[in-house]
Amino acid sequence: MIGESFIFAFLNVAFLLVISPFFMMVVKKVKARVQGRQGPHLLQGYYNLAKLFRKETLYSEYAGFISRIAPYAALSILLVAAVMVPIFWIPEQELVTANIIVFLYLLVTGRLLIALLGLDAASTFGGMGSSREMSLSAIIEPVTVVVFAALVYVTGSFSIHDIFRTATTMFPAYNPTVLLLSVPLFILIIVETGRVPVDNPETHLELTMVHEGMLLDTSGRNLALFELSHAVKQTLLMAILLNIILPAGIALEMSAGVLILGGVLFLLKGTVLCVIIGLFESAYAKMRFFQIPNLFMIAFFFSILTIFIEVML
Known about the structure:
Blueprint: H1 2-34, H2 44-54, H3 65-84, H4 100-120, H5 124-155, H6 160-170, H7 176-192, H8 220-245, H9 256-283, H10 292-312
């Protein structure tokens, strides 16, 4: 059992690191096509990471130890979270606790590290980005808790492994509860990854930056680690959505053929979801900062509605 859990952890983390940059490029490709441009090559994300890893890392003269440890800590936290979220295989035994509350705390810790990084360099735009990030976090984190509380209530478990296992046996894709849950979970992907209409990850206008503003003084290997962390976070949130609304293909046993099929199917499902994300971003303009909570309220409403319907049924 323990040996299987270690194999799961290795395969899950390795698969996540390999596919995450690809998903980022799919979104960029779709947005470029909608705008009538060619867009980047689907492997461009890997080239960018390789280039950044080869570049020199520079630090602000005011930067302290946080700027040096934050990139490694942020990625490490998300890799621990990756062991908690099965991507294409649900093992019989958890290697580490897959409690959804612990998962949420890990996400919050990663966000706090990046916010501290923006302040650590003592730059104007970095501090502005950190301030905006914390302001949005104060609003979105209670909504996130409600969204996952609805998920826990529907599935009857705090374990992410058990939630996915329940989804494979109990929830068809047309189940009204699943359809309602998909809306707030999709909004969480948009919000947590800083996408339009909440933020624009491709903007170069410092006054409108949130996530990117905190990374303006980051370069070289550190920037590569943050870019990889951002991609990993997106894939983890996508996995939660996909393995609940469309769990078909996720492996329940350790068999080479089943695992390969599960990985291929998740890659296909993830690509389709990335296309939807790209189309969603292209259909909306960036919201004004004080209008962003309106989007959060949609996620809150659908989560409460899900709990209400589950109670009534």
